[in-house]
Amino acid sequence: MDSTELYRKVLLSISGNTLVEKLSLKYGKKLASKFISGDTLAEALAEIENLNSKGIMVTLDHLGEGIKQLSEATGYKEEYIRLIDGIAERGVNSNVSLKPTQMGLALDPEACYSNIRAVVSQAKKHNNFVRIDMEDTPFTQATIDIVLRLHAEGLTNVGTVIQAYLFRTEEDVKQLIDAKVKLRLVKGAYKEPGTVAYQQMSEVINNYKKIIRMHLDKGVYTAIASHDDRVIEWVKDYAAKHSISKDAFEFQMLYGLRMNDQEQLARDGYRIRCYMPYGTMWYPYYTRRLAEKPANLWMVVKNMFK
After folding, report:
1. CB–CB of 101/73 below 8 Å?
2. Using CA atoms, how far apart are residues 214 and 219, in angstroms rounded to an integer?
3. Is 90 annotated as belonging to a binding site?
4. Alpha-carbon separation of residue 38 from 86, 105, 145 (angstroms)
5. Contacts of residue 182, Cβ cutoff 8 Å, sequence gap at least 6
6. How far apart are CA 94 and CA 74, in angstroms?
7. Is the pTM of this model over 0.70?
8. How far is CA 186 from CA 37, 64, 134, 265, 299, in A?
9. pLDDT of residue 7
10. Is 44 annotated as a binding residue?
């Protein structure tokens, strides 16, 4: 296990501690705001306009996951319908992402499906697209099943996320490409055991490149979500060597990280999309961002003393 992977595992373990969470919720909001566009939809829509003006597309995410009561899922569903309508009314270039546990997957799978279906149906009315985020492995198959079921109903304006660190990923990609499901390809940000996921970063990156190639070689539109220069430069080189158009894929990065690089990619003619969350339920998202690499934590620590 390399030092970066050890760091990630330790920080994810610490962040699950109740005391750490309480202290973070009390003192960390200002620091977390770097990664979050605001508490309200109005703030988020204004920031989307700002990013669009720089050539950056957006995926808008309303923060929330792991709900404890199904009534919370109804509230999230209604907020997503409002934000889809808001995107259309504002005329901004943004699709949306949601988490299945936010919609009730852990509590009532059928209710969850109904909630997600309502959001996807509303998005279809506005010719918009919904990405169902991939959470940790207890929900992997259920998430894929939701997407395939929606496609079978004719709601094809929905896709999901595939995580390169899982052993099952290559077969999932084959199935979902055949089903014409649009995918966001990521390394993976949850703490997973060695029984289901690669533990060495070199193995994760190799598998990541493999599933990117599977898309590009088949002419399937490819969404590559990474801040890793090794991956980004490899994609650029691979596309150039194989005469793959810059319109055939997009890079995706997170709001608050490498914003100058995102603007540069847009100026260089690449399609770039910023994953931009808003809302008050920021702690789980924030801790995963810090766990991705030590540089993110160091950036926050420096800001504490400014």
Report:
1. no
2. 9
3. no
4. 15, 26, 32
5. 129, 159, 221, 223
6. 23
7. yes
8. 22, 20, 10, 18, 22
9. 40
10. no
Q: What pLDDT is recorded for position 270?
A: 98
Let me know: does 12 contact 270? Beta carbons within 8 Å: no
CA angle 260, 263, 268 (to 5 degrees): 125
The pLDDT of residue 6 is above 90:
no
188 known ligand binder: yes
To the question of whether residue 271 is assigned a binding role by annotation, the answer is no
CB atoms within 10 A of CB 151: 17
Radius of gyration of the chain (CA): 18
Q: Tokens at residue 16, please?
A: 């699950």
Does residue 134 have a known ligand-binding role?
yes
Residue 74 tokens, joined: 């109804």
What's the CATH number for 37-281? Answer: 3.20.20.220
Task: Tell me the per-residue pLDDT of 248-259, one tens digit each, with 9 for 90 and over.
Answer: 999 999 998 899
The full DSSP string for 103-121 is GTTTT-HHHHHHHHHHHHH
Report the catalytic residues. 133, 184
